[in-house]
Structures are given as C-alpha cells and as structure tokens.
Design brief:
The chain is of the alpha/beta class. The chain has one domain (about 5-155): Maf protein (Alpha-Beta Complex). About 45% of the residues lie in helices and about 20% in strands. The chain has helices at about 5-15, 30-35, 50-60, 65-70, 75-90, 135-155; strands at about 20, 45-50, 90-100, 115-120, 125-130. Strands 2-1-3-4-5 form a five-stranded mixed β-sheet, sandwiched between helices. Helix 1 packs parallel to helix 6 (about 135-155). InterPro entries: CinA-like_C, CinA_C. This is Nicotinamide-nucleotide amidase. Pfam families: CinA.
Amino acid sequence: MTLAQKLGKLLLERKQTVTAAESCTGGLICAAITDISGSSDWFGRGFVAYANQAKIEMLGVSEAMLQVYGAVSEPVARAMATGACRAAKADWAVAVSGIAGPTGGSVEKPVGTIWLAWVGPGVDESELCHFKGGRAEVREQTVQHALARLVELIGGQA
C-alpha cells in the first residue's frame, strides 16, 4: 500500500479531507494523491504556488512575510498550509516550499533545503529538511516525507 493509499484510507475512516500547497514540488503531492482511484472523496483541490505572487493571491501569504523571511522559510510554509486549508475548506493541509536545485541555493539555504508544514485538527507542525541528490530526487524525497508525516499525524488521532 502506498503512502497516498494509506492517507486515503485514514481520511475516509475519519470522514476528513486534505489539500496540498506546493512550491518546489510543482504538484507532485497532488499527483501522488490523485493517482489513487476515488481520491476525490477525500481530496478536492490542491495549490501549486510556485511564484511568490501565487502564494500571495491563492494562499493569503503576506508580501511582508515573503520579504522578511523569504519563500523558503518556516513562517511562509506555515502560512501556505493554513491558507490552503482555509481556501479548500479541508480538514488537513500539507505545504512545501524549498530549493530543489540545481540552482537557487545559497550558503544559508543550500539546494535541498525544504520547509514543510502540516495543519489539521489540533495539529500545527513544521519541519526543516535537507535532502540530497538532484532536482528529481529532492522533489521525490519531499513528496514522500510530506505524505509520510501526514499519515503519522492523522493516524495518531484518537
């Protein structure tokens, strides 16, 4: 059973829904979810907010927050998750913003730097990850980690 299948099973059991707000993964989380037949029962929409303007317009991330912290930051990932949850009227959201490479990295935020955030009933969590590999590998590791933690968080609910 894939992580997305496990996610769907948990959400169906709880009669809950999920959404995703993605930057560097460009819709790969949504693709993993919609690969599952019947996922429309627990996934209505997702958001690919690659550009900062998209984060502002679609997810309600403030321009000031982007200027102060940058797109690849904990506050922005958290705001993306909260904004996606609100916009999709979903119970759960996962958001990712990072530098998949091969360009775009810096000393402070090297390639592979990814901020993830999850929100849901009683949950507001974020995590900084540093993944290794090329662009495709960084993106795939991000998707797998995003879904795995979401499954853990939902599975831990009473």
